[in-house]
């Protein structure tokens, strides 16, 4: 059996090479083509993604059959192919995003293999062959994070039969549409910042934003889960770091119908106070919104998770849905939050604003970012630390969600 060719990953020791060879050895069917003696040609490849989801694309001169398997210790995705000549530069498939190492090459007579070694437990949500407009076909693999338990289940329940070579595979279905079909209205509550990313800090008490948002999020989830037909969950339940992309993926994996991200930022103008509701837009409503979005979007860089991702590819990975419809639902929710707060909770001027917040970019989940108040203002800081005010604001937020669900989801508004 031939050793897989090394991509741009780390050095491949003889010991680890033997391990992979022993762990992954399995029979693979030959290429189903009119020319079985000629290998497929993989003439180009590319990978895009981040620490929560990634897409691998390999172009072939003919339609490839393939099979997918999972191997543990470390977590790997194995793609078995018929005889294949890999004719693209190694740097074209250099490890990035979810994967820390990518190897490919001949496995023996009639077979080849791509091995994707992951940074963490991972799963394929889809794997399919698509026809190229100009030449040949492309194998498209969409991967995203999963839990250790779910990865172990994938390893345990899979079959290694050679007859499983195929031309497409929907590995795990994704939620479709802005509303869930399970009869339960599900809400992801995202406590902003966490772990190494403390966020802003109080002007007087120096309380970190990450603690305030988590305290609000826990109370909000508790109140929402008391409502009939509603299920709410936290994207983070402790002082842990989540990248912006992870927050979106966790919401989608939880089949959320709404995504609410809680924050309590600071401003240079200490006299500005009050709550603000943000929805997504590539063009900011004002300079303050643009500045806040830019600062929030730095969260990943602060924790060393900065990875540039071409936006069109990532949109394809998530879902090919109409953003316009989802955005209309987001605006509807924002308007209901503002109406619920009016006369009860202090709001800044023009309380519904919009900007390019990365955490709001799920194309299929109506999403808002709620600035609870500004820690740069002493009055707001005092309220943000008040259990009584926290209880009042979360109750009003629950009311807004109930009205959104009753009027929008039911078709009444």
Automatic annotation (TrEMBL):
Molecular function terms from GO: N-acetylmuramoyl-L-alanine amidase activity
PANTHER family documented for this protein: N-ACETYLMURAMOYL-L-ALANINE AMIDASE (PTHR30404), N-ACETYLMURAMOYL-L-ALANINE AMIDASE AMIC (PTHR30404:SF0)
GO terms (BP aspect): peptidoglycan catabolic process
EC assignment: 3.5.1.28
Protein name as it appears in the record: N-acetylmuramoyl-L-alanine amidase
UniProt-listed SMART domains: Ami_3 (SM00646)
Reaction(s) catalysed by this chain's protein: Hydrolyzes the link between N-acetylmuramoyl residues and L-amino acid residues in certain cell-wall glycopeptides
Keywords, comma-separated and alphabetical: Hydrolase
Keyword Hydrolase: yes
Superkingdom of the organism of origin: Bacteria
Listed GO CC annotations: outer membrane-bounded periplasmic space
Residues passing through the membrane, by range: none
Pfam families (UniProt xref): Amidase_3, AMIN
Gene3D superfamilies assigned to the protein according to its UniProt record, in alphabetical order: 2.60.40.3500, Zn-dependent exopeptidases
InterPro entries with a match to the protein in the record: AMIN_dom, MurNAc-LAA_cat, N-acetylmuramoyl_amidase_3
Domain MurNAc-LAA: 248-402
């Amino acid at each position: 059996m031939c050793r897989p060719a090394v991509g741009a990953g780390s050095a491949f020791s003889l010991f680890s090479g033997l391990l992979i060879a022993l762990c992954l050895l399995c029979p693979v069917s030959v290429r189903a083509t009119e020319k079985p003696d000629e290998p497929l040609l993989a003439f180009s490849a590319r990978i895009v993604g981040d620490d929560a989801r990634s897409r691998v694309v390999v172009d072939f001169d003919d339609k490839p059959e393939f099979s997918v398997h999972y191997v543990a210790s470390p977590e790997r995705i194995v793609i078995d192919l018929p005889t294949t000549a890999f004719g693209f530069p190694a740097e074209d498939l250099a490890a990035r995003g979810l994967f820390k190492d990518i190897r490919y090459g001949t496995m023996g007579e009639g077979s080849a293999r791509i091995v994707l070694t992951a940074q963490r437990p991972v799963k394929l949500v889809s794997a399919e062959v698509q026809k190229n407009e100009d030449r040949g076909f492309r194998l498209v693999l969409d991967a995203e994070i999963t839990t250790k338990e779910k990865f172990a289940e994938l390893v345990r329940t899979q079959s290694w039969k050679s007859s499983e070579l195929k031309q497409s595979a929907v590995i795990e279905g994704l939620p479709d549409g802005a509303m869930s079909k399970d009869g339960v209205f599900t809400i992801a509550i995202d406590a902003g910042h966490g772990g190494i990313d403390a966020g802003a800090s109080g002007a007087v008490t120096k309380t970190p934003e990450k603690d305030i948002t988590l305290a609000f999020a826990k109370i909000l989830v508790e109140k929402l889960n008391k409502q009939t037909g509603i299920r709410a969950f936290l994207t983070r339940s402790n002082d842990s770091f989540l990248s912006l992309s992870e927050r979106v993926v966790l919401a989608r994996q939880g089949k959320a119908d709404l995504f609410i991200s809680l924050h309590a930022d600071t401003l240079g103008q200490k006299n500005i106070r009050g709550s603000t509701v943000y929805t997504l837009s590539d063009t900011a409503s004002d300079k303050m919104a643009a500045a806040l979005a830019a600062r929030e979007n730095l969260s990943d860089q602060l924790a060393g998770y900065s990875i540039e991702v071409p936006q069109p590819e990532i949109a394809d990975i998530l879902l090919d849905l109409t953003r316009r419809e989802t955005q209309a639902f987001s605006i509807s929710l924002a308007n209901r939050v503002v109406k619920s707060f009016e006369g009860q909770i202090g709001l800044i001027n023009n309380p519904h604003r919009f900007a390019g917040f990365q955490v709001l970019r799920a194309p299929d989940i109506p999403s808002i970012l709620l600035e609870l108040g500004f820690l740069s203002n002493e009055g707001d800081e005092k309220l943000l630390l008040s259990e009584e005010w926290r209880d009042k604001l979360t109750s009003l937020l629950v009311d807004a969600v109930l009205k959104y669900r009753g009027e929008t989801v039911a078709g009444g508004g």
